[in-house]
Specification:
The complex is a heterodimer of chains A (about 300) and B (about 280).
Chain A: H1 2-7, H2 16-49, H3 67-70, H4 72-107, H5 114-126, H6 129-139, H7 146-153, H8 164-192, H9 196-204, H10 209-237, H11 241-246, H12 258-267, H13 272-296
Helix pairs in contact in A: 2-13, 4-8, 4-10, 5-8, 8-10, 12-13
Chain B: H1 5-32, H2 37-40, H3 55-61, H4 64-97, H5 103-115, H6 118-131, H7 138-162, H8 166-174, H9 179-208, H10 211-216, H11 224-227, H12 239-259, H13 261-273
The chains are: A mainly alpha (about 300), B mainly alpha (about 280).
């Protein structure tokens, strides 16, 4: 029925004007939502950032220019938080790409039980991040956590919430744990879509395991790896829930990343204007990634 | 390709160890929910041998504030899903199939949400919401979470719409159907898997959301994700209750993972690689 329909000669395409009006009305609710909830606060935030607005100060809010962006507190805390954000992003991304590739490769070998393993490995991505953070903070508790017990078994003693480096490793581990599934699933799809002839040719030509992976599969997978890397970076950069419950930015401010810094400035110190300056700076920082995303978007 | 025995053993070792790293914490939380506080705080930890108790579950189920948090979580999740579906579906059709004034703006804004950390919007949003007297209400949470999930949902649907052959629509138009009839009678039924996928992702995403409600609520509109914070104080962590509440948050997600795995995998691929 449908095939006979589509074989008929074309007499009339939907008119262009009809199309434009329809598209406009269809996207109107979306545009209204995005303008109210995204564009308005962004513009408002920019205006707040050039004032001395504060939720606890008695002084009337007034325009103070770019002072918020120039103060020493802003500079020191912002650059430290930027470093934390970058460290989390880069280290969790590298570990995820390496382990994700290995796991995806193994899962696409069509071994028995693959479906079960996929279901299990998928889980962390969907579990409530704040509860995941709670779960790990119970396990990492330096006095009675399971991790301390496991460490005792092999004769280690690291308090993962005690020192800056250890706390950072814990945060990076959680980021790895929570988002590894995404990397695995996208890589799996990528590997399954590879042209089989090329892999067979490599095998016939006597390529060994290392050559097949490094010279054949990974180059063909490059576009997929790029997409995964950029999506994961954006998400790791804005990590919040886990830091909030696991370290609360500590010890000191060693695990305060940019979103957490903006949150603390706005809702612990009630300094709306400085928090807005941080927010605006974050937007400026992610602009290059924004343009990459726009180029990836094909509609 | 030869599949040597040791390579298969290695493969299973890798899969089993990664599964343990994933499952151990989850099982630890699920079992701790059934422990007395004495057992839960025992060191070395009692992993298997403990007295099973339902006290934690009983305590939570008799706690009025917990049920209020559950109601908020469910309302936010369901309302957000309705909003996202009603907004993302036509938007996705508009983006995938038509040109219209404002299309560029829509793409610019959707992409902006994808790359911007939510806190950037929430700092000024908090002041705006307070000014309009909407603090500690469900409505702003629903709208903000909808906007945060909208891009992902829209791209999933765009991918699904693009997978429907355009000839199908053109043929129906030739046969005299109006554009809206085509959408309702042809696109809508074919799009149901895509719509279900977006619904699942939105339900899970809104259920899991923490940052938005921690800023936008303090009591009446507090969902379970924020409610659980009260079990950790400076002096004391209530292991049993905290684990029980976390397990409660995990349950719907576990069920979705088991029963809607295919939708989740397909949606993830469609939403991230844009078809």
């Amino acid at each position: 029925m449908l095939t006979t329909l589509s074989r008929r000669p074309m007499r009339k395409r939907p008119s262009r004007r009809d199309n434009r009006i329809l598209g406009f009305f269809f996207s109107l609710p979306g545009l209204v939502l995005l303008i109210t909830v995204v564009l308005t606060p962004l513009i408002t935030g920019f205006f707040y950032s050039v004032t001395n607005k504060s939720l606890i100060s008695m002084q009337p809010t007034k325009f103070i220019g770019f002072q918020n962006y120039q103060s020493d507190v802003f500079n020191a805390s912002f650059s430290s938080a930027l470093m934390v954000s970058l460290k989390i992003t880069i280290l969790s991304l590298l570990t995820q790409l390496l382990t994700g590739y290995a796991i995806a490769k193994t899962l696409t070998r069509k071994l028995r039980g693959t479906s079960f393993f996929v279901t299990v490995i998928m889980l962390p991505m969907l579990l409530t991040p704040v509860a995941v953070g709670m779960m790990w903070s119970l396990m990492l508790n330096p006095d009675l956590g399971v991790i301390k017990w496991l460490q005792n078994l092999i004769g280690l003693d690291i308090n993962f919430l005690g020192s800056p480096t250890a706390a950072m490793s814990a945060i990076i581990f959680l980021e790895w744990w929570g988002h590894l599934p995404f990397v695995v699933l996208v890589f799996m799809a990528g590997i399954l879509n590879l042209p089989q002839e090329v892999l067979e040719a490599a095998s016939i030509d006597g390529a060994n395991w290392i050559q097949t992976n490094l010279r054949v599969i990974i180059p063909m997978l490059a576009p997929v790896i790029a997409v995964v890397a950029i999506i994961r970076s954006v998400n790791a950069f804005r990590m919040f829930d886990t830091i909030f419950v696991l370290t609360n930015g500590g010890p000191g401010s060693s695990t305060v990343n940019l979103p957490f810094l903006a949150f603390k400035t706005a809702f612990t110190y009630f300094d709306t204007s400085r928090a807005s300056a941080i927010a605006v700076s974050i937007v400026v920082l992610v602009l290059p990634v924004y343009f990459v995303f726009l180029r990836m978007t094909k509609v | 390709m030869r599949d040597r025995l040791y390579s298969r053993i290695f493969a299973y070792l890798l899969l089993v160890s990664i599964s343990l790293i994933v499952l151990f914490p989850v099982l630890y939380i699920l079992t701790t929910a059934f422990k007395t506080n004495v057992d839960a705080e025992h060191f070395p930890p009692k992993l298997f041998k403990f007295d099973v108790t339902t006290d934690n579950i009983k305590y939570l189920s008799e706690n009025e504030e917990f049920w209020s948090a559950v109601r908020v979580s469910l309302s936010v999740a369901i309302l957000t899903t309705v909003v996202v579906l009603f907004i993302a579906t036509p938007l996705a059709y508009g983006l995938a199939r038509t040109r219209f004034p404002g299309k560029k703006l829509a793409v610019l804004l959707i992409t902006l949400v994808q790359v911007t950390p939510a806190i950037v919007l929430l700092v000024p949003m908090f002041s705006l919401v307070s000014q309009f007297g909407l603090y500690d209400k469900i409505l702003p949470q629903v709208l903000i979470i909808s906007a945060l999930i909208l891009p992902f949902g829209t791209w999933i649907l765009v991918a699904f719409i693009k997978a429907i052959p355009i000839e199908l629509e053109e043929a129906a138009i030739v046969d005299g159907a109006t554009h809206l009839q085509v959408i309702w009678l042809i696109i809508r039924p074919l799009l149901m898997p895509g719509i279900s996928t977006v619904a699942i992702f939105t339900l899970i995403g809104a259920w899991n959301e923490f940052l938005v409600p921690v800023i936008m609520s303090e009591s009446k509109a507090q969902p379970v994700t924020v409610f659980i914070l009260r079990f950790i104080t400076e002096k004391n962590i209530d292991y049993g209750l905290l684990a029980t509440a976390c397990a409660f948050l995990f349950i719907p997600v576990l069920l979705f993972t088991i029963f809607a795995k295919r939708f989740i995998v397909e949606g993830l691929l469609a939403g991230s690689t844009k078809g």
